Q: What sequence folds into this?
């Protein structure tokens, strides 16, 4: 069964450093989402892509976060500079246009020291 | 925007008993309500979902009910088993912007 892939699974960085996360959605899934999940809370949407276009980035802190999906397939989420409050799980999800179900990747757990 | 509230935050149930988790939503335009199960250190996985044109849906031991008038929906797990222990999240999707808003989660513990 196809799954959403993410890397790295864990990342420890110092504040003010740059970090990047990668997501490879299920093949054929045009819609891709990046979520942030703080410990003990539900996922919160950061950015939504439809193919290579950003559909919703209203909750993305654009002064330090950026996301791209250049060829409409895999995607990268970047944080520069990282802050202590960015410590969280970063989840990627994807879905087809025909279904409503979002399939999640295993996430990248980020710890900023 | 949409606001989803979920209760309780923690729930302990004796093995074999039933568990019920409740969620309320604020946006009457929401039309899709999935439930995700997240085991420790693992990805959220869809366990059941319901659309606004349906009042109830069942899949083996799991059922979801929706009351559009009251804007609340509930997850019911019967004959609970140890492997049901996990964090459960409800979510609501707005028809207009397709955005999923999640509840804060319920940590369910099944006591053997």
A:
């Amino acid at each position: 069964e196809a799954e959403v892939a993410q890397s790295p699974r864990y990342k420890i960085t110092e504040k003010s450093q740059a970090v990047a996360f990668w997501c490879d959605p299920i093949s054929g899934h045009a819609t891709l989402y990046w979520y942030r999940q703080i410990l003990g809370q539900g996922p919160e949407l950061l950015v939504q892509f439809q193919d290579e276009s950003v559909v919703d980035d209203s909750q993305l802190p654009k002064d330090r976060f950026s996301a791209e999906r250049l060829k409409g397939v895999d995607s990268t989420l970047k944080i520069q500079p990282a802050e202590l409050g960015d410590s969280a799980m970063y989840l990627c999800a994807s879905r087809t246009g025909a279904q409503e179900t979002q399939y999640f990747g295993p996430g990248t757990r980020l710890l900023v020291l | 925007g949409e606001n989803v509230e979920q209760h309780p935050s923690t729930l302990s149930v004796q093995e074999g008993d039933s568990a019920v988790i409740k969620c309320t939503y604020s946006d009457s335009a929401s039309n899709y309500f999935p439930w995700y199960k997240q085991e420790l250190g693992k990805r959220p996985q869809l366990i059941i979902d319901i659309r606004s044109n349906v009042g109830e849906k069942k899949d083996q031991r799991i059922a979801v009910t929706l009351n559009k008038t009251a804007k609340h929906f509930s997850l019911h797990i019967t004959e609970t088993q140890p492997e049901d222990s996990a964090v459960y999240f409800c979510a609501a999707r707005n028809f207009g912007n397709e955005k999923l808003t999640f509840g804060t989660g319920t940590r369910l513990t099944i006591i053997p």
Notes: The two ends of chain A are 37 Å apart (CA to CA). Chain A touches chain B through 20 residues (CB under 8 Å).
